[in-house]
Amino acid sequence: MSYIQLKGLCKKYPNATKNSVTDFNLDIEEKEFIAFVGPSGCGKSTTLRMIAGFEEISGGELYIDGKKMNNVLPRDRGIAMVFQNYALYPHMTVEKNISYGLKNMKVPSDEIKRKTDWAIDILGLEEYRNRKPKNLSGGQRQRVALGRAIVKDSKVFLMDEPLSNLDAKLRVSMRNEISKLHRQLGSTTIYVTHDQVEAMTMADRIVIMKDGVVQQVGKPMELYDHPVNKFVAGFIGSPQMNFFDVTIEGNTVKFADGKQMPLSENIINQLGGKTSGLILGIRGEDIKLDAQNLEVYGEGKQSAVVENTEVMGNENNLYFTFGGAVAVARVSKYEISQVGDSIDFTFVPSKIHFFDKETEECLF
Amino acid sequence: MKTRNKVLKIILVAAMILLSLFFLFPVVWMIANSFKPDAEITADMNSVQAFIPPVPSENFFDNYVSVLTNTNFLLYMGNTLLYAALLIVLGIIVNGLAGYALAKIKFPFSDKWLLIIMMLMIIPSETIITINYLFIAKMGLLNTIFGYILPMIVNPFNIFLFRQVFVSLPDDVYEAAQLDHCGPVKYFFTMVLPMSKTVVATVSVFTFLNVWNDYLWPSLVFTSSDLLTAQIGLNAITANENTTMGQTLAAITLVTIPVIIIYSLFSKQIVEGVVSTGSKEG
Question: Residues B138-161: what's their mean pLDDT?
Answer without folding.
Answer: 94
